[in-house]
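Supplementary Methods. Inverse-folding protocol.

Structures were first reduced to a discrete structure-token string of length 308. This string, shown here, constituted the complete conditioning input.
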């Protein structure tokens, strides 16, 4: 199945049919990965990974995915060695790189930059995160992890942490409602989910998520505990960060009242919001989640670049 748009900019742009097709294709890719079957479906295709902002998982898993599909990768990580340093605009950069590659994955600190870049070029652009706005491929791999670990049924999902600046939850919430999940938001008051997203969810799905301030209030209820770090780099005022730093964390004690089969997810990197003692509990699935990212990104690249 081809996606209706040439680009993947926001989770809210995707239809349920498209998401289902991506998840199905991700299962196929996961099988290839696990059986270590080499694929050549994107042989001759080039992916450009343009990371204006730091990344470990998104950039490397896209590069791994493209390589495992038989394609190749060019790109940069940080702008230090690029002509952006000489004052070149994002649009001019894009116009050049679209001649060097068949698709682009871009991460940029400016909200809306992915949509702007996509409008400038005719090859597919995948948003690898634009500021606090959106991170759609992370949401797809989060949903894929939920599907693999719990199945896509009416689950209770708690989105926890920095819901104001965290772009992964701004994307994931759309997919959770798309698949009929119950969502509760858990955050300090100063880091609540932006009202424009909650309003948009209500308009699309006729529901508003619940709200709690403490993790303790949702642990006995949750099937999925999705934890995020406080996005320190996005705070305009460091004093505001200090007021909430360390204000919530998951440790073994918190999990005493967890439901059987609950899964803890985290987009990573973590700082201190999940203690390492949780890693060896049956609840911790965040490293599996990161691994699933390769198969989801393989699926997306294959669907966008027509390898199939
Ligand atoms: N989850 C995620 O986006 O991780 P990176 O910032 O390492 O890419």
């Amino acid at each position: 199945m081809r996606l209706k748009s040439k680009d993947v900019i926001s989770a809210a742009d995707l239809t349920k049919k498209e998401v289902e097709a991506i998840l199905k294709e991700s299962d196929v890719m996961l099988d290839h990965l696990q059986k270590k079957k080499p694929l050549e479906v994107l042989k001759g295709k080039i992916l450009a990974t343009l990371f204006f902002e730091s990344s470990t998982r998104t950039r490397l898993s896209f590069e791994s995915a493209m390589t495992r599909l038989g394609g190749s990768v060019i790109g940069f990580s940080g702008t230090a060695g690029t002509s952006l340093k000489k004052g070149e605009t994002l649009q001019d950069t894009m116009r050049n790189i679209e001649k060097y590659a068949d698709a682009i994955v871009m991460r940029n600190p400016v909200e809306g930059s992915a949509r702007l870049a996509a409008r400038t070029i005719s090859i597919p652009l995948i948003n690898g995160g634009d500021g606090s706005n959106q991170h759609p491929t992370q949401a797809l791999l989060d949903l894929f992890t939920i599907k693999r670990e719990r199945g896509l049924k009416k689950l209770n999902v708690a989105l926890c942490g920095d819901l104001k600046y965290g772009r992964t939850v701004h994307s994931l919430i759309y997919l959770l409602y798309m698949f009929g999940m119950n969502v509760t938001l858990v955050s300090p008051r100063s880091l609540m989910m932006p009202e424009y997203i909650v309003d948009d969810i209500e308009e699309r799905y006729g529901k508003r998520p619940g709200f709690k301030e403490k993790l303790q209030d949702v642990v006995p209820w949750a099937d999925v505990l999705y934890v995020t770090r406080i996005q320190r780099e996005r705070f305009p005022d460091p004093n505001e960060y200090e007021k909430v730093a360390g204000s919530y964390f998951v440790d073994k004690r918190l999990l005493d009242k967890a439901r059987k089969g609950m899964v803890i997810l985290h987009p990573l990197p973590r700082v201190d919001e999940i203690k390492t003692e949780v890693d060896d509990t049956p609840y911790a699935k965040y490293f599996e989640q990161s691994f699933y990212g390769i198969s989801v990104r393989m699926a997306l690249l294959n669907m966008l670049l027509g390898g199939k």
